[in-house]
Each structure stands twice: as C-alpha cells, then as structure tokens.
Design a protein that fits this description.
Layout (H helix, E strand, L loop, with lengths): L1 E7 L2 E6 L10 E10 L2 H10 L6 E2 L3 E9 L11 E4 L2 E2 L5 H4 L10 E2 L11 E5 L3 E3 L6 H4 L2 H13 L7 E5 L3 H12 L4 E5 L3 H9 L4 E3 L6 H9 L3 E6 L4 H6 L4 E9 L11 H9 L3 E4 L11 H12 L8 E6 L3 H10 L6 E5 L3
Parallel strand pairs: 11-12, 11-14, 12-13, 14-15, 15-16, 17-18
Antiparallel strand pairs: 1-2, 1-4, 3-5, 3-9, 3-18, 5-6, 6-10, 7-8
Helix pairs in contact: 4-5, 4-10
GO molecular function: oxidoreductase activity; zinc ion binding
Family: Belongs to the zinc-containing alcohol dehydrogenase family.
InterPro entries: ADH-like_C (IPR013149), ADH-like_N (IPR013154), ADH_Zn_CS (IPR002328), ER (IPR020843), GroES-like_sf (IPR011032), NAD(P)-bd_dom_sf (IPR036291), Zn_alcohol_dh (IPR050129)
Length: about 350
Amino acid sequence: MQSLKLYAKQDLRLEKAEEFALTSSDDVIIEVKAAGICGSDLSRYAKLGPYVKGTTFGHEFSGVVVNVGQAVTHVRPGDRVAGCPAFPCGSCQECKKGNPARCEKLTVLGAFRSGAFASRTKLPAANVIPIPDEVDFDTASLIEPSAVVAHAYYRSSIRPGDTVAVMGCGNIGLLAIQWAKLFGASTVYAIDIDSDKLTIAEKMGADATILPNTKPAHEAIQELEGEGVDVAVESAGSVTASAQVLALPKKGGEVVFMGIPYSDISIERFYYEKIVRNELRILGGWNAVSSPFPGKEWSTSIEAVRSGHIKVDSMITHRLPLEKGPEVFDRILLRDEFFSKVLLYPSP
C-alpha cells in the first residue's frame, strides 16, 4: 500500500508499506479516503523531524472500515468513519482524573505508530467514530481539528452575546470563527497578516477582519469595539501573536491559547501588564479529547458538520493525490502560493 514516511526534517518519502493485519481483538483497519495536512505536521516536517525515523506520517483523516477484531461491535466493514488520533495512557494521574488531554504519556497517530498518510491505517476501536451518510469524506477529515477547537472553547467562559477576536486565521483559527458563533458570540473579529486568509475568514462567518500591517490589532479592536472583546483566541502559534493577543480583551476578559509556537516567547512589558492590570483569565486548549473518551468534542463536531453549522469547503484550497505529498510540503514552505487546508487522497 502507499505510505508517506518521515525520515528526517524535510525528508518525506512515498514508499510501499506492509498491509495491516488484525493483531488485537479491538483493532479496526480503515481504508483512508481523505487525509489533511495539519499545521503541526508542517512544524514537524520543517523544524522538528520525526519521533521515530521512517514512521508513516499524518493524523487527520476519514475513511471506510475494512476489517475489525472480534471484540469490535460499534463498527463493521463498510462503515464510514473518522479517526481520533490521540492515545492517552489511561493510567497516569490526569487520565485517572478524567483528563485524557493532559495525559503525561499522550501520543498521537503518525508519531509512534503508523499514521493516516497511507492507503490504510489501524486504530483501537475506541478511537474509531462512525460518521453520518450525509457527511462527505473531505468534511469528515476535518472533524479532528474541529474537535480541537471545541475542546478549547468548552474550557473557556464564552457565552451567548460575547464578542470574540481570533488572532491567526489558519485552519484552527478559521474553525474557531465558526465555533465562536455556535457558542453564541454576537461579533467575531478575524485578525491576520495575510489578506488571503482574511478573505476565507469572511466566508467562514467573521463579522469584521483586521489586517494589522499598519495599525496594531488592539488599536483596531478598540476603534471597533471600544474597551475590547470578551474572549481573545490565539490560534496562529506565532511568537508575535502570542504576546499581542493579550491586549485584545477588555478588563476581566479571557485569552484562549490554541496555537503552539516553536520558539521562545519574549513578551514586552506593555502586553504582559495587560494580564495583571486587566485581571485577564488565561487558558490553554490542548488536543481534542475528554472523558468519557473520546469526548463530547467529537459528538458535537459531528453534529455541527452534519447540520451544516460548521462548513469547511471554503478552507480547502488543494486536493491532491498522496504521491504529491513530498512536493506539496515543500511548496507550502516556499510561501510563493496560497495554501489553506490541503487534503491528500491515497490510492486504495
């Protein structure tokens, strides 16, 4: 079968891989229909390298069940599914408390076990989630990042009528715009230095967009909103944005960090003092799982895409066969054309 394997930084190879076999009674073997490139995939490809040399890459996907172990009862061959790529240990203190996202030994598909950039992948039954017939495979492949956003918002204090600013309109930020509306936000501001991303943000439901190239984002927010927003989301994973987002909320407001910067952050006094003087509440949202596993993030995401409240078509800019994977990763890094969500399609 086809497989994209990561051997080192910027060393991604299309290779043949062995077919999966059932080795446990709760195994589920899935034919991958669509797999998305995540921002974390790009960071590992460009900056960090693989956890294990030569591991099949990728963790956002949808597909069709091919075979199941004897103990599997909730899906059967032919069923359409999405895959939760997180594997909490189940035995650490946080897992015992019912906080699998905080698992001390959490691993992810495509890290220490074969991932979704392949013709087939294999998951434990608990990680396999049936999808409704009306949800297409492209949309289903984005249920995982949708669940990441839902998980963070469930941790927040967002409530109907709140104003929200989303700083960073990559794929997580774009989903954060729609989820803010689902949580009842009256106004959502989208902030990014890329005008192409802001164009998509408008299609995703942003009420206003801010391009902070000539004026700091917090000044633009104050002109539009007065004292600031109720909730500010950092979804860029940017060193700069991780500081600047602190100036967006009003006094007593909240900041939710969803992005992951891969460099040290140095915060100017102006931004740091916003935490103290404005008595901000600072939260982090990590991964997409809760208890009972995999969590309400998944059931609500599936219902949101089924009902059409979460729509992802505007986010998808490239649909490519899996063999174009190594090439497209390099093209994304070159930044000489615009990419939002890229989907890869393996051959059966």
